[in-house]
Amino acid sequence: MNLVKEPNTILHKELQYVKTLPENLADLISDMKKTMYENKGIGLAANQVGLDIRLFVIDEKIAKEAGVPSAYINPEITSFSKEQDEMEEGCLSMPEYYSIIKRSKKIMIKTIDENGKKVKFKARGFLARVLQHECDHLQGILIKNRK
């Protein structure tokens, strides 16, 4: 899989909901993770590899430590804490671009995992930041749009 870079238009559009899980879902997730690791990322959304579906993956180690999925299908953040913090973020689709981004410290998210199971959990700290960054991609929002 090849990384899609800014200014590709797919990075700026709201992605399509997954209505039925594709037969090749496991391969797709595996390929996305491979692409993410090859590019030294910790998250990768489907539009970053040219796909118009609401799917992203995150680093397996981060997911395992938090006891959460590493693949997210049709994710939705259902609540954001008022308490926020700022941190520098980068993006695989905008190499060498970094920006200080303000995000909620805690979120509640619901999604479908790689096994087709509905999951809902609270994320905090760095995990919450990663999930918010990747959910932004599914809405067509890049860090340069988040000042």
Describe the structure.
- It is a single chain.
- With 147 residues, the protein is an alpha+beta fold.
- It has a single domain, classed as Alpha-Beta Complex (Peptide Deformylase), CATH 3.90.45.10.
- It is 24% helix and 31% strand.
- The strands form 2 sheets. Strands 1-2-3-6-7 form a 5-stranded antiparallel β-sheet, with helices on both faces. The chain has a two-stranded antiparallel sheet with strand order 4-5.
- A hairpin with a 5-residue loop joins strand 6 (106-112) and strand 7 (118-124).
- The chain is globular, with a radius of gyration of 14 Å.
What is the compact description of this entry?
This protein is of the alpha+beta class and 147 residues long.
Calculate Rg over CA atoms. Answer: 14 Å
- Helix and strand element order: HEEHEEEEEH
Q: What's the CATH superfamily, by name? A: Peptide deformylase
Euclidean distance between termini CA atoms: 30 Å
- What's the helical proportion of residues? 10-25%
How is the secondary structure organized here?
Blueprint: H1 25-38, E1 43-45, E2 55-58, H2 60-66, E3 71-80, E4 84-90, E5 98-104, E6 106-112, E7 118-124, H3 125-138
Antiparallel strand pairs: 1-2, 2-3, 3-6, 4-5, 6-7
Labels describing this entry:
single chain; 147 residues; alpha+beta; Peptide Deformylase; 5-stranded antiparallel beta sheet; globular
